[in-house]
Records
---
Amino acid sequence: MFFFTIRRLLASVLVLLVSSFLVFALCAASFDPLERYYTQNPRPPESFFNNLRETLGLNDNFFVRYWRWLSGVLTGDFGETINGTPVVDQLFPRMLVTGRMIIGAIVIAVLLAIIVGVIGAVRQYKASDYTFTFIAYILIALPTFWFAALLKEYVAGGVNDLFGQQVLYTLGEETPGLSLYASGWELWSDRLGHLVLPTISLAALSFAAWSRFQRAAMLDVLGSDYIRLARAKGLTYRRTVVKHGLRNALIPLTTVVALGIGTLFGGAVITETVFVWHGMGEYLISNGIRQEDINVVLGWLLVSAVFIVVFNLVADLLYAVLDPRIRLS
Amino acid sequence: MKLSKRTSMLIATGLTGAMALSACGGGSEDGDGGEASGGSGRVVFGESTDFPENLYPNIAAGNATSVANVLIKVLPSAYQVQPDFTVEFNSDLFTGEPALEEVDGQQVNTYEINPDAVWSDGTPITVEDFEFTWRANRSGDPADGGCPAVLSTTGYELIASVEPGEDEKTVVVTYETPFADWQGSFENLLPAHLMDADDPAAVCETITEGWPIAEGLPEGISGGPWQVSNIDAGAQVIVLEPNPEWWGDGPELEQLIIQNIGNDPTTAVQGLQSGELDVIYPQPQLDLVEQIQALEPNVESEINFGLTFEHLDLNTQDPHLADPLVRQALAYALDRQEIVDQTVGQFSSDAQVLNNRIWLNTQPEYEDTAPEQVKSQNVEEARALLEQAGYTAGPDGLYTHPERGPLDIQIDTTENNPLRQTTIEVMIPQLAEAGINASFNANPDIFAGAEAPTSLEGGGFQAALFAWVGNPFITSSQSIYQTPQGDNIQQNYSRIGNPEIDALFAELATEPDRERQAELGNQIDGLLWEQMATIPLYQKPTFIAHQANVEGVQDNPTEAGPLWNSETWTIE
């Protein structure tokens, strides 16, 4: 398992290198950070443009620029944004922001997906199965931004009206400026109130698709010979389902969830935008792509690619834990 | 069924638990009176433009609307643009209206600084701050003691000296050549005692570094009613608190919190609805305006027409559009009233067709200088002009020229801009009536540099729809209409000019008198109509909405923005 891990990590370094080079090439070809100044009125003097080109290194050869970025990254320096802020200063705090938003949602979504998936399979074509299937498809079909808007309008509005005060919040991680004059329980409960809606939104949408995977895998397993054998040996139905069925049926879900987590760390872009969480996804869209900032895009790429690689690895390792027949060598 | 019951109970318990937890939280918070709308004097402004990375306004990194909003009542300015587009001197900073004189053929302005005026660290505001502000913006050339990071040297480059008068509180500014927009100079006065150095290179270093957002303003300096007290770059929140050394009236609030909410309009509306935001200033969109109006009377809102105006630029290097008759025909074929009705007219019945490029409808200097034929659609005259230019109509009614080929005009504009797309979609059938085959093209490179061939700079376009951000000052239009000198087109993307217009602009740029400026501007615009290389369309609306219990909020549709009078805001 150890050598497997090492080999996988080495391979992923190569993947990261190639993808960063490709993205760098694409960005260098299409980004023009000077763009917004051409139509600025009055137009900045030529010295301004020359200076900006020089400071951003735009006059240099493409390979020189890539090498400069790459050698910086190796020493932990992700470069500066076009406005002169070190990218690392934003990248890591934002990772925590995104992390805070998605961790609860993932835990809830996975638990719900397993429970709902198993019930759906065990009680196939019963009323409960139809109900959950119906709900899952509705959630899968709902666009995130719309679902979030509904949550804000009806859930937040309804709950706040019910309590007669602000309980659930629709914007940001905390009431702006609250940390300046509040601490302890007041601050944390405020943050919790801000966390509820994004968590529900992300959890509901992820769980819906995952529960379908779990149901399908479970159905597959329940129909197999070793389950019949287990029953024939006299094990209780519940024990058969949980011990022999569920454990095997978790493998496909592991893959999907691992990939899902990796992607979500790169940014639940829409959820972040709608709920105004200044996380990774927002960083890519508004600071990276909209500002035509190559270092931001690459910094984002690197971090989210690392997450995807790591969670893929975790998934592979989990296979071995779940199914002892799988040997990683 | 056993399992499912248990599950649903689990979910229900979890959710109610979370809600109950946060409910307690909400309670304790209200107990402290911490809520913005609770009347404790805290107002949250939802900023919809990008969060700044640097607060120094005169370099690229700090050149943002969000920075201007933070600084407007932090760093003093000599003049402030009023909501009615007039310019008024800063009566807190000066004891009287600054004097404008001509001495030995040179323009001299004298400013009398209020004796009480001090920076927030107690240092008096004196002529030194004016002198430093001039020096910090004077030149982009290091050999000349300037700094290449400086974004704009307009006006400052024309100043010969900034000297004390009778004492340190009198500022005498002498211009080498008269400068029309002298009132726009000394915007955002800089604290000399915190930034100045003997060596110009050291000053340049200070300027280039600016005021990174992580550090904020140097020593949290302020010369206005508000002071930046706290910046949370992670949560994108900037907190303003009253400047203890402020010598004027206000502020009436304990805190003004600027929270960045991004440009999603639904977010802004729901934030206002839920009471988390008190004031918003989003880009107006039709459904957004309707949603806000549905929240009355708890929320008040206002639509105005600002300094940004949309216009159509015709590239005179295009074989068709090089012909003045074709440009005229195109202008005659447009029904601009219908364009306005279908676009900005939907927001407000006050929307008007813009018939001037130098002064906008809502400015006091505005005059309708347009020729009669462009005031309504004149298809017949347009067709006659095209035939006069040698075009012949095909069986489908569309014109073709024996040498230039079919009269196909592609109108370029920015991507993902519904308002501009609608504008062009309304134009296309209008132009088709006159036999001009127009088409819509969202051009991602439109504002790119000259190395992108289809950009405005590159010149590989036929017609382009985009906006200029006007200002009450006048010299900024010069670079748009000045005759190109070889490859140096400045911002004259239609690439045409004439000596008469150039001469009038030269006169305008050195004319400090406002009435004469108005006259010259209108005269220039009359000539621009003859040239017909740009067709003005309409001013863009601005939209402010706020909780009804925040009193004193008033839109300033100019670059002064929504926080221009924030020191007078009160909360009921």
Note: DSSP finds 14 helices and no strands in chain A.
---
Amino acid sequence: MSDETKPAPEGQPSAADAEREAKVAAAKAKAAAAKAAGESVAAPAESAPAQATPTDADKEAKIAAAKAKAAAAKAAREAAGDGGDAPKPAPAKAPAKAAAKAPAKKEVAPAYAEIKDDAFIAALRASFQDDIKEAVTSNGQQIVRVVPERARDLLWYLRYDAAIRFDMLTDVTAAHYPERKAFEVVYQLYSIPENRRLRVKAELPEDQPIYTVSDIWTAANWLEREAYDMFGIVFEGHPDLRRILLPEGWVGFPLRKEYPVEYRHNEWVAENLNILEIPEGADLTGKFD
Amino acid sequence: MNAIPLVTHHTETLFDSEQMVLSMGPQHPSTHGVLRVILKLDGERVVDLDCDIGYLHRGAEKIFENRLYPMIAPYFDRLDYIAAVSNGLLYVETVEKAMGLEVPPRAQYLRVILTELNRLSSHLLWLATHALDIGGFTVFLYAFREREEILKIFENFFGARLTCHAFRIGGMTYDAYPEFEAQVRAFCDLFPKRLEEYETLLNENRIWLGRTVGIGIISAEDAISLGLTGAPLRGSGVDYDVRKTDPYECYADLEFDIPIGENGDTFDRYLVRMEEMRQSRRIIMQALDRLPDGPVMGKVPKVIRVPAGEVYHSIEGPKGELGLYLVSDGGTKPYRLRMRPASFVNLGALRKMAVGSLVSDVVAVIGSLDIVLGEIDR
């Protein structure tokens, strides 16, 4: 496993993220180059140029070096037949989602396959025409993508009018895709009489609201509140849209990708928890790598 | 204080009285953790209520997005700490489903035995605390006695009583210890007698009946609309159990019944859970009889990498349908991992169930929902 001798982030815990990332990248690239076979072991601490406070020029040089090394490492890995994903320095997700990046080992099954021979889905498409962007399966589960403006209509239809009535709303949640500046609002439906599940997804631009479904299924009341709490998605027409898990007055929406993993809102803490001093050297920026 | 919409029930009472806002919890023992219920009262009657949750919020879903797949499993033990085995099962099964991994039959049977034991221990804790809340102290002691036996088995198996971290992606790390089968059988032999003891204390107890019959009624239609699952849904007469509708592990090979209630009140939910305990014992006995030999760990790649795509998987936890929605970008960490917590959705029904009842009945209804705040707040 990785060595424990990694020096504690000294002096300035608030060093800019970019700096850390550059360091991490440099360390990673070195490790990768050393290994060449693509085993992802944490970098030996000594190789990380973690000393002093680098200047901007320093930083850029490091980034450039890291990039070059990472590219070399990637080439080496690919040559070794490992496929491998982009050597992105930060633990943040690779921007290109899904896409044809799957490791080339087994036969590459597409992540999402078009639904072809399903009478119910076909009828749904016939009634909603172009408002249903696509109907696909992933891991054998049916997904209907709908334009956000019509999501409520579709859900209403599925609850009351469709050939299969989805009487239970199991879950409402979302996922954030910053590179598209959008959320995917996800509704998990279940039909008790037919024992069938369906997932409805609506891609919602970050600054747009979506209509609530809390009057269609009461369950959506709290679930939408949670989605609002975590992502900042505004559900228009919701009777009681306020934070549910986080306290009132919290700033930010934690499950957005740009929200840091380890982070303390010092002003909020000072005001509400009466902790006025943050201890010297407390690491509030540490990220898992 | 959060704004509670005005309800004008008090005008229906004989004397127009002033309304009072009472904060129950978050340290109140009957709220089973750190739930705060803000009650708006007209005398003893609840006019409106609001739940204040989130005291245990640890940002679990955010943490998941930044951990490798094998590193996530222990976090699940700490969500519903009463039913850590079930939670762990949910996680490993979801990843296995997304990766298309096969689990060896022996591991499947052991998983079922342990999960059902966990259901028993969870239900026993529910019975103990629920009875304690509404005045049955003896049952509390009795139920904890039996729960202890299960926890001893867990401790022998996993080395931990509550946060078991029982399963691994692809199977289990440990096979059963030598006396496991004998100990579980001994417990199963003993258990029906003990269940009868509880029922002797409760089923014809006037106080128990007075506190539970007709309290917190929820109709089947409302229960479905509220998304209730588990005993609160089945108590209202809806036959829905993920073990039957979408069998996982080896549940399809095992015989068991799904008990359902009629009236949807606190007493029916009690009956449903008592019968569920009998059925769990039945499942354990069958699984022990059929327990196959063989390995307990399947073939798993060294680096767990879930192919791009998404999957929703759910299991029947002791508290209801536990769902997990996994979105993967093909990497070693999930892009999004969303837990559908049964307790969270079930607690959302409290307002519907308790408004109009007495303050003391709110306690009974919270007890009969069987919530755990670690899972609600995540």
Note: The CA atoms of residues 35 and 41 of chain A lie 9 Å apart.
